[in-house]
Write a structure and sequence with these properties.
With about 400 residues, this protein is of the alpha/beta class. About 30% of the residues lie in helices and about 25% in strands. It has 3 domains: about 5-70, Arc Repressor Mutant, subunit A (Orthogonal Bundle); about 75-245, 3-Layer(aba) Sandwich (Rossmann fold), CATH 3.40.50; about 280-395. It is flat.
């Protein structure tokens, strides 16, 4: 797909700074420098985001924005785990209706006997054909078509077909969108056809979307919600749909190796509140728990209590190693009284400052305390159940 001189240039310079290469300019007229820079930057991103791709010689990468937006190997493998829980007879055929760069497809395809990649952009289809051969996917079929057209043309056995969609979240003006109805294709409009063609549908949505509304919009076919975080950053919202679903909705909150599953119909979101000031440990739920809002589940599953209804911080008198979030040992608790803060913070020059349900931002609090950012001290500004503003000065246990 590219001349040998350009390919050789990529191989010789892929460890170098892309900006420096761009400033240096093209030294050889046979080198397609913009394409080469995309490949170098793509490979450098893939080393961390898609290590198995980076280890495969000859992979063609898209422009930088597409690399930033595509799934990581970690989240793609997580989707495989969802699919592999299905009986084999329910996943004989995978159809990815929004192929894109094809990261999710290449992982999901290995869970199925047959796999169809559908993409409306011709250049992405050409790239996919090239990459799929290198990645060892001889059973992958590439179809250049709109998702709607592919649904009409492909002959499927619904009970054995799994559909996957990651709708484009940008409008015609390249502005970012979040609502399901604003994405392309519009899954709300397609839903009856989707469930007719494949009884199981895995849908990837923006992590910014309210999952309660998404479930309400899609109706009772949603069997599972997966809120997936990596490194305590919420990356994906996944909805697994089953045309025959009649049971309860299950919500999976995942952050790296932390996992919590709950059923909203069984677990209230109202947490038990603490008014005890003798707590020794403070807990901050991970990003997926925060997104789910299942704070009441935490106080029923773990021996913790919430500081207040809206503080989203928890305390206990014992160290809980498997709590789904971060744990801190509380050294002292201070009011906002100037003299008390002076005594409490004596000798501390820097700290990691955060606030929850507090009347000032973390930046303003750090400025008021006169502290530099960083170090081994963690300070949480929050409000207690009695409405008092408190500083929790902590360290890692």
């Amino acid at each position: 797909m590219m001349n040998e001189t350009t390919i050789r240039f990529v191989g010789e310079h892929r460890e170098e700074d892309v900006r420096a290469l761009a400033l240096r300019g093209r030294r050889d007229d046979n080198v397609d420098l913009p394409w080469a820079l995309d490949q170098i930057q793509g490979w450098q991103t893939a080393r961390h985001k898609l290590p198995s791709w980076a280890a495969t010689a000859g992979i063609i990468y898209p422009p930088h924005l597409s690399m930033e937006q595509c799934s990581s190997e970690t989240t793609a493998q997580y989707k495989c785990g969802i699919v592999e829980r299905l009986p084999h007879s329910c996943r004989e055929l995978l159809i990815d209706l929004t192929g894109g760069f094809g990261v999710d497809f290449t992982f999901l395809a290995r869970c199925c006997d047959k796999a169809c990649y559908v993409e409306r952009q011709t250049n992405l289809c050409e790239t996919a054909r090239h990459n799929f051969k290198l990645l060892g996917l001889p059973h992958a079929q590439v179809i250049n078509a709109e998702a709607e057209q592919a649904l009409d043309d492909l002959k499927t056995s619904p009970s054995s077909t799994l559909l996957y969609l990651d709708p484009a979240r940008r409008d015609d003006n390249k502005a970012r969108t979040y609502a399901i109805a604003d994405c392309s294709p519009n899954v709300l409009e397609l839903l009856p056809r989707l469930l007719k063609c494949g009884h199981h549908v895995l849908l990837k949505l923006s992590p910014m979307l309210d999952w309660h509304k998404a479930v309400a919009d899609l109706g009772g076919c949603v069997a599972e919600v997966h809120i997936v975080s990596v490194g305590n950053e919420c990356k994906e919202l996944l909805l697994f749909m089953d045309a025959a679903h009649e049971g309860e909705l299950a919500v999976h909150c995942v952050n790296d190796d932390q996992s919590l599953i709950y059923w909203p119909s069984q677990d209230s979101s109202t947490p038990a509140i603490s008014i005890n000031g003798d707590a020794q440990y403070l807990y901050e739920p991970n990003a997926s728990i925060m997104k789910a809002g299942c704070f009441g589940v935490l106080t029923r599953r773990y021996p913790v209590a919430a500081l207040a209804a809206d503080s989203h911080l928890f305390v206990s008198n014992e160290h809980i190693a498997d709590f789904p979030g971060r744990c801190f040992a509380i050294n002292t608790i201070s009011s906002l009284n100037k003299k008390e803060m002076g005594r409490t913070l004596s000798g501390i020059t820097r700290a990691n400052v955060a606030v929850r349900n507090f009347p000032m931002s973390a930046q303003d609090l750090r400025r008021r305390l006169g502290l530099k950012d960083g170090g081994d001290t963690y300070i949480f500004g929050s409000t207690t159940a009695t409405g008092e503003h408190r500083l929790f000065i902590c360290e890692k246990p």
